Amino acid sequence: MTPTAPSFRIAITAAAGTAAAVLGFQQLGAQAFAGHDSNAPVNYAADRIELQDKQKRVVLSGNVDVTQGDLRLRAARTTVAYSDGDSLRIQRMDATGGVLVTRGSESARSDVAIYDFNKRIITMVGNVRLNRANGDNLNGGRIVIDLNSGVSSVVGSARPGGGAGGRVSGTFAVPKRD
What we know:
Layout: H1 5-33, E1 42-45, E2 48-52, E3 57-68, E4 71-84, E5 88-103, E6 106-116, E7 121-131, E8 137-146, E9 151-155, E10 169-171
Antiparallel strand pairs: 1-3, 2-3, 3-4, 4-5, 5-6, 6-7, 7-8, 8-9, 8-10
């Protein structure tokens, strides 16, 4: 049986919509960080700061607020690893406890976040939730945001009782039609 022209167009339109949805999920996290200047200075504030010079790290705790350009990270605790050759250079930041990363009107929440300054990769793990101002959202277990390529990859959350294999879920906002 040969499909009729209208049903064939509907099938093609549905396939294109599905492909756009998949690409949209992949880009949801990356768009929030697209164009981020990872060479900008890092500013920080916290209730308590502890310099651990021998370990070459700084521990920020209590209402931690870190900014780099227009990127903002808030958490209960953040450890900053650094090297100190000619000048102090941040290597990595590990944030825990209600992590919230924002840029503009987009936000990402997780239990833990790791920002590798050398690789220019941000990894967020545990109860990951991404939200855009237009209503798009994405939920998963882990997201890796590559600031070099602008590509994000998301995997599902752990299944109750342990084990991997949970699913990624979310919602796409649909433009209103008259």
